[in-house]
């Protein structure tokens, strides 16, 4: 049976992979952050992302490179990639908004919508569902929203100030920008030449009610890999997920 939404879903994506990754040192001393491997996975973050994008119907990806771009390009040249990949290199830092705009100019289908993701995100959920959510709301941009666990234990108290429970690393009560996006064809025209779109473009679209938020489904895995601790925690979580899936 033909899926009536399939034609409107993106088949192209941008991956932002140009950051310094300074909080992940020494892992990023000799490679860009997306080339860091989570222990036990056997693949760098960028390899995981490209596989995920391919599974969700993407055929073409533009990777915006910066820090140690030659290391990433060398890996891309030898890897068995599931999508067509182009790289663009920022000769000077453009910021996330400028980087998106610069990379989007190389997308093969400028008249069609596109996905984007930060290069340090390890996640798995249905981008097809997110694209349908985006189309149903006629949004210019849609952000995936995550509810990560806070890194500390929390306490519950009653109305008299008595502690009633301890909760280890509970999910935050706020949703955050998960670093995965769906954009309408003309979105790149709204991006700054340099700077951060989260401080310029997104607030403008939010005021006009043209910005949507797609909650990542309950149970789907999501983590931003920012620090060495994130690598350790991700390895534990993914190993646990693997055990549950095989039992």
Automatic annotation (TrEMBL):
Record-annotated Nucleotidyl transferase domain positions: 13-239
InterPro entries, sorted: Mannose-1P_guanyltransferase (IPR050486), NTP_transferase_dom (IPR005835), Nucleotide-diphossugar_trans (IPR029044)
CDD domains xrefs: NTP_transferase (cd04181)
UniProt xrefs under Pfam families: NTP_transferase
SUPFAM superfamilies linked: Nucleotide-diphospho-sugar transferases
Gene3D superfamilies registered for this protein in UniProt: Spore Coat Polysaccharide Biosynthesis Protein SpsA, Chain A
Protein's name in the database: NDP-sugar pyrophosphorylase family protein
Organism in which the protein naturally occurs: Streptomyces pseudovenezuelae
């Amino acid at each position: 049976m033909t899926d009536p939404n399939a034609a409107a879903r993106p088949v192209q994506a941008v991956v932002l992979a140009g950051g310094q990754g300074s909080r992940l040192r020494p892992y990023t001393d000799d490679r860009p952050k997306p080339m860091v491997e989570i222990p036990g996975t056997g693949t760098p973050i960028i390899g995981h992302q490209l596989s995920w994008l391919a599974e969700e119907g993407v055929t073409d990806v533009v990777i915006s490179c910066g820090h140690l771009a030659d290391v990433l390009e060398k890996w891309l040249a030898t890897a068995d990639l599931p999508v067509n990949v182009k790289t663009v290199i920022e000769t000077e830092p453009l910021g996330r908004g400028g980087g998106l705009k610069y990379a989007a100019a190389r997308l093969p289908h400028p008249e069609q919508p596109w996905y984007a993701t930060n290069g340090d995100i390890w996640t798995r959920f249905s981008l097809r569902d997110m694209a349908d959510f985006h189309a149903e709301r006629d949004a210019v941009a849609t952000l995936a929203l995550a509810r990560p666990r806070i890194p500390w234990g929390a306490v519950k108290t009653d109305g008299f100030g008595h502690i009633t429970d301890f909760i280890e690393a509970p999910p935050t009560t706020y949703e955050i920008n998960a670093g995965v996006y769906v954009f309408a064809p003309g979105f790149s025209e709204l991006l700054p030449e340099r700077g951060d779109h989260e401080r310029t473009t997104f607030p403008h679209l939010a005021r006009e009610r043209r910005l949507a938020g797609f909650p990542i489904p309950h149970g789907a895995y999501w983590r931003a890999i920012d620090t060495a601790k994130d690598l350790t925690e991700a390895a534990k979580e993914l190993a646990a997920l693997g055990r549950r899936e095989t039992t």
